[in-house]
UniProtKB/TrEMBL annotation:
UniProt cross-references to PANTHER family, sorted A to Z: HEAVY METAL TRANSPORTER (PTHR42208:SF1), HEAVY METAL TRANSPORTER-RELATED (PTHR42208)
One Pfam family recorded for the sequence: DsbD_2
Protein name: Uncharacterized protein
Cross-referenced InterPro entries: UreH-like_TM_dom (IPR039447)
Length: 220
């Protein structure tokens, strides 16, 4: 299977100006507030936060890449995995486009509410560089439709190293928008945000369609 890293980076980059602002904007504002109370350069806090966030994505890529590699014993198993991932991606694309209860189903998480939110509150109160690092790492585990898309893609390659690389590309591609948000929050036109997000969601749907077709061919 050929990997188009330009397309994967484009999806992450475009969606980061819309969806990521909504999902991760609160985290960005949290460490922005921390920076006012920590006697360290702001760029250092931004750098440490995002390095930790990207590291969390890479860890997810390694875990799910390993899981995906276990499902490649037969052509039929591979086909079924592709088909299911494709259906998941198309459903996810519809959820991202139309929002509502379907997206809430994907992005609501008992684990997040019970564990991550509680730790976020503690970290913000600590006001240290270590708090910023941990805040960034926890951000990587926030329930997010786009993260799920890249995890699914990582599973599909059935290779731990490629899966980790895919998640690294995702993290790096969201970096410009989120760094921009940290310095100039609420400066982007809302119409631009919606248009960029819509384009990325359509690309996710097309990837899902491609995966489903590939899976169907493998199972024939």
């Amino acid at each position: 299977m050929n990997l188009d890293f330009i397309a994967l980076a484009s999806i992450a980059f475009l969606s980061s100006f819309g969806h990521c602002y909504g999902m991760c904007g609160g985290f960005v504002l949290a460490y922005t507030q921390l920076s006012k109370q920590i006697k360290l350069p702001f760029f250092l806090l931004v750098f440490s936060y995002h390095i930790s966030r990207i590291l969390a994505y890479v860890c997810l890529g390694i875990f799910f890449g390993f899981f995906g590699s276990l499902l490649s014993f037969t052509e039929f198993a591979k086909g079924m995995m592709f088909f299911i991932i494709g259906i998941f991606m198309m459903t996810l694309a519809f959820a991202l486009i139309f929002k509502g209860k379907l997206l809430a189903f994907f992005e609501d998480s008992l684990f997040f509410d019970c564990i991550i939110k509680k730790n976020i509150s503690k970290l913000i109160q600590n006001k240290s560089l270590k708090s910023t690092l941990f805040l960034g790492f926890l951000n990587g585990f926030v329930p997010c439709g786009l993260v799920y898309f890249y995890i699914a893609f990582g599973m599909s390659v059935q290779n731990v190293y490629l899966s980790a690389l895919i998640m690294l590309v995702f993290g790096l591609s969201t970096l410009p928008a989120l760094v921009f948000f940290a310095f100039f929050s609420k400066t982007l036109n809302e119409k631009f945000q919606k248009t960029a997000s819509l384009i990325s969601y359509i690309l996710i749907f097309l990837y899902g369609l491609y995966f489903s077709y590939t899976g169907f061919i493998f199972t024939k």
